[in-house]
Specification:
alpha/beta, TIM Barrel, 7 strands, globular
Amino acid sequence: MLVLNIREDYHIHCNYNDHSSIDLTVENVIKKAKELNLQTIAFTEHVRKTSDWTEKYLDEINLFKGKVSFNVLPGFEAKILGDGTIDCPDSYLNDKYFIIASFHTKYINKIQWYGALLKAIQNENVNVIGHLAPEPEFSLTTQEIRNLGEEIVSNNKLIEINAKYNRPPLELLKTFKELGINFHLGSDAHSLMEIGNYNRIKNLINYIEQSKG
């Protein structure tokens, strides 16, 4: 039986974006994680290729991570673009940084969406596919879901169980679980109170942790 570690949070933002709580500083995130007795956290601030704050952000993470005993991963959440590339500076696309690729733009056209997702899954620098779900304008066939799952397995990608958006939906999880895909938890925190808080996705956690058959 797969057990998800609720003392890990692999999707935390901070105040380097314009829509997080003002007190969501790198220092406060680390303090909160320590209070919650978390074992691993990943900073995954929204990034674009044109972002000019990234070095300051990484320097700040490095300054505080050495003061705690738990694991602190520096990284970014990057948009999956229409051509399947991700909106992240090339200098961070390496094994030093934890990279989540996720959709933040609606493409409506399923063929474009599906193709872009496949290319992101095949990107060797992407660690995780974040808050994955079809767009409201279309659904995926059973075979399309299975094809995605097989691509995820062959490219050794993790699928995030996302607390903010309550994703992926159960119809994806069912096939992904059958295929032996690896999952982990991400709060997608934009405020201190959301860090490590998985109350909204207890149903998804329970589903994944159920024994087969």
